[in-house]
């Protein structure tokens, strides 16, 4: 565990707290709102912030990942599942209504993922009578069986940081695994960040029959508020109070240039046996011949795979 797990007592900022609960079901709207909170929430005036939401089915890749490598894109398209790229690093995750997304915003100085996970795991264990244990990768593992129920990522900039993690409450595991099984994994060469497969994946409902996301949300909120002398809750679905900032964020992360164009450069074997080099989602070379007609085109798996 990182040394921050036993860091000094909390500053005055931690005596205040703000809970944002999004009732919007769009992954793009929620990621845009999360980015707005990261950039604009006043930590000095309003204290640390907790943001919670659940999405319609979606798969989210980390900022430095290759979606063609990480995701079963044809399966997503056939089942109406959104594909998104977030601002933080880390691995690829599946979201749906049975998953609670948790973001905790603090100052960079107070940022400590092991301490956060320990607090929330202890509360969940106490409330539901389960055994969830954070590991050295900052995942939360449900025992027995070493089942991963939560994965962590983070974003740090301008003296502030958010730690966000998923929390699987109820999920169709075969469906989840299908979304993350790229049919092209053996045909791509890249230095992009790769997801680390879990030994096993689980969800809280395997141990607590009938548990709901709302119940888990209440425990997470109570855990956060118990560390604050004063806190407030803001529940919303429209985000209209932030003007155009969130709408602009959402428009950006919906664009092809963000979802696919942000992909680190890679080489891929095409269906016809040729090899293509792709940078920023654009084909730059095919079999070493820059005169091939697809050079300069967007890489499109529907055409070339």
UniProtKB/TrEMBL annotation:
PROSITE patterns associated with the record: BPL_LPL_CATALYTIC
CDD domains the record matches: LplA (cd16443)
Protein's pathway: Protein modification; protein lipoylation via exogenous pathway; protein N(6)-(lipoyl)lysine from lipoate: step 2/2
InterPro entries, per the entry: aa-tRNA-synth_II/BPL/LPL, BPL_LPL_catalytic, LipoylTrfase_LipoateP_Ligase
Pfam families registered for this protein in UniProt: LplA-B_cat (PF21948)
Biological processes per GO annotation: protein lipoylation
Entry superkingdom: Eukaryota
Gene Ontology CC: mitochondrion
One MF term in the entry's GO annotations: lipoyltransferase activity
BPL/LPL catalytic domain span: 44-232
Family under the similarity heading: Belongs to the LplA family.
Protein name: BPL/LPL catalytic domain-containing protein
């Amino acid at each position: 565990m990182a040394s921050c797990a036993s860091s000094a007592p909390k500053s005055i900022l931690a005596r205040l707290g703000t809970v944002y609960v999004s009732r919007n079901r769009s992954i793009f709207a929620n990621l845009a709102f999360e980015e707005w909170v990261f950039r604009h929430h006043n930590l000095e005036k309003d204290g640390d912030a907790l943001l919670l939401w659940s999405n319609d089915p979606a798969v989210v890749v980390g900022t430095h990942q290759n979606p063609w490598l990480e995701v079963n894109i044809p399966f997503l398209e056939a089942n109406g599942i959104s594909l998104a790229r977030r601002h933080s690093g880390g691995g690829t995750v599946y979201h749906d209504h049975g998953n609670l997304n948790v973001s905790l915003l603090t100052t960079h100085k107070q940022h400590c993922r092991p301490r956060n996970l320990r607090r929330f795991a202890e509360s969940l264990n106490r409330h539901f009578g389960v055994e969830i244990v954070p590991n050295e990768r900052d995942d939360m593992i449900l025992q027995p069986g070493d089942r991963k129920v939560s994965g962590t990522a983070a974003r740090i900039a301008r003296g502030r940081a958010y730690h966000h993690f998923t929390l699987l409450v109820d999920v169709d595991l075969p469906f989840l695994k299908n979304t993350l099984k790229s049919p092209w994994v053996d045909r791509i060469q890249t230095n992009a960040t790769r997801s680390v497969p879990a030994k096993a994946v689980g969800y809280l409902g395997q141990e607590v029959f009938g548990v709901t996301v709302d119940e888990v949300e209440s425990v997470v909120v109570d855990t956060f508020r118990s560390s604050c002398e004063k806190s407030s809750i803001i529940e919303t679905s429209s985000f209209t109070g932030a003007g155009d900032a969130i709408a602009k964020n959402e428009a950006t992360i919906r664009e092809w240039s963000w979802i696919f164009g942000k992909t680190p450069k890679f080489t891929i074997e095409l269906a016809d046996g040729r090899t293509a080099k792709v940078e920023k989602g654009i084909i730059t070379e095919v079999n070493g011949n820059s005169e091939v007609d697809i050079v300069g085109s967007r890489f499109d798996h529907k055409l070339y795979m």
